[in-house]
Design goal:
alpha+beta, 2 domains, six-stranded antiparallel sheet, four-stranded antiparallel sheet, elongated, disordered N terminus
C-alpha cells in the first residue's frame, strides 16, 4: 500500500532509494503501517530549521578548511528504524559516531569513504581528484579528520540550541555499518540527508539522531508559547482539577485470591455447598480497585465493624496505600 508524500513533510520508515535513482518527490512511496510515523509535521519543521542552519555552517567550515569549492545542502528528514537505515549504507563507508550529552544515546554522521579520503587530501594541500584509497584511515588521517569533525560537532550544538542544549563529542570512527551500533535495531531514528559538494565530488551524507532522546525537546518546541497570564490560568486550572480529582469516590474491594471454578459446578451450586478458596491462612488479602491490586491487608476490626489493616506486600513489592 502506498501513500503520496514529500520527503520533508511526511517521513516514513521505508528506506530511500540509492542516490541517482531519479525518484521524484511527488511520486508515491511505500508506507509501513506496522511502524507508524512518530515524527509529526511540526517536528519536521523544527528539525529543518536546525538542520539547515547546520548545513550552512558546515558549508563555511568545509570551504575554509579544504580551500576548495564546497557545499552542504539539506535534502530531507525521514524516520527509519535503525536496522532499515543501516541496510541502506554500503560497505565500507565512513561513519563518525558521537555522544549527545546531556541527552542519552548517540548519533552518527556517515558519508562515502572516498569522499572522506578526498577531504583529507584537500586538508593536506592536495587536489582531492583521482581515485582514493578504499581502506580504513591511518592514525595521521584520523587525527586530521577529527579536527574537521570537532568543528562540525560545535556547529551542530549551535544549530540545535533553540531545541535543546547539546554538547556532542566525537566518540569514534567506523567503516563497517554493522559495527556502528549507536542504537538498537528496532529503535526509531531521525535521518537527515544532505547533498555535499567537495571539489568535483558530489556525495550524499546522512546525520542520524535517536528520536527517543529528542522527543521531549521536540514536543516542547512544538508547543505554542503562552503569555504569563495564560500560564497562570493554566496553572490554576491544573491545581483545581487535581484538587477535585482527590475527592472522587473510588470503589475498593478487599478480597481473597481469585479462583477458577468449572461452569458445571457453578450451575449446580446449592445451599450448604463448600467452595475451596485455596487461599493460605497466613496470606494477606488483596486490596483492589478496578481489578488492580494496589495493596494487601489482613482482617481486623475497628470499634464494632470489620476492618482491613494494610500490611507489607508479601512478595516484597511496594504497596501503594
Amino acid at each position: 500500500m502506498s501513500l503520496s508524500d514529500t520527503v520533508a513533510e511526511a517521513p516514513s520508515g521505508a528506506p530511500r532509494p540509492p542516490a541517482g535513482s531519479g525518484r521524484r518527490r511527488s511520486e508515491p512511496r511505500t508506507y509501513d503501517f506496522r511502524r507508524p510515523t512518530k515524527l509529526s509535521r511540526e517536528h519536521v519543521r523544527i528539525l529543518q530549521i536546525a538542520q539547515e542552519g547546520f548545513a550552512r555552517q558546515a558549508t563555511t567550515i568545509l570551504t575554509s578548511l579544504l580551500r576548495t569549492g564546497a557545499r552542504m545542502e539539506l535534502l530531507g528528514i525521514e524516520q527509519f528504524s535503525y536496522d532499515d537505515y543501516i541496510a541502506t549504507l554500503p560497505t565500507p563507508v565512513f561513519i563518525a559516531t558521537f555522544s549527545l550529552e546531556p541527552l542519552p544515546g548517540k548519533g552518527l554522521l556517515a558519508y562515502p569513504l572516498d569522499a572522506a579520503m578526498a577531504i583529507v587530501d584537500h586538508m593536506l594541500g592536495g587536489s582531492g581528484a583521482g581515485e582514493q584509497p578504499n581502506r580504513p584511515m591511518t592514525a595521521m588521517e584520523t587525527t586530521i579528520t577529527g579536527h574537521l569533525l570537532d568543528r562540525l560537532m560545535n556547529e551542530l550544538a549551535s544549530a540545535f540550541a533553540h531545541i535543546t542544549p547539546l554538547q556532542p563529542a566525537l566518540a569514534g570512527l567506523e567503516y563497517n555499518p554493522q559495527l556502528a551500533q549507536v542504537a538498537s535495531g528496532s529503535e526509531t531514528v531521525m535521518v537527515a540527508t544532505y547533498e555535499m559538494r567537495i571539489g568535483s565530488r558530489e556525495p550524499q551524507a546522512t546525520l542520524v539522531l535517536p528520536f527517543s532522546s529528542f522527543a521531549g525537546a521536540l514536543n516542547n518546541a512544538a508547543s505554542p508559547q503562552l503569555s504569563e497570564s495564560a500560564l497562570r490560568k493554566r496553572q490554576k486550572a491544573t491545581e483545581a482539577l487535581t484538587e477535585r480529582l482527590s475527592h472522587v469516590p473510588v470503589d475498593v474491594s478487599v478480597r481473597f485470591a481469585p479462583l477458577e471454578v468449572p461452569s458445571a459446578d457453578l450451575l449446580t451450586l446449592a445451599v450448604g455447598d463448600v467452595l475451596l478458596l485455596r487461599h493460605p491462612r497466613d496470606s494477606p488479602l488483596e486490596v483492589t480497585t478496578n481489578d488492580v491490586t494496589f495493596a494487601h491487608a489482613i482482617a481486623s476490626n475497628h470499634r464494632r465493624r470489620l476492618a482491613a489493616e494494610i500490611v507489607p506486600d508479601p512478595t516484597g513489592g511496594k504497596d501503594h496505600s
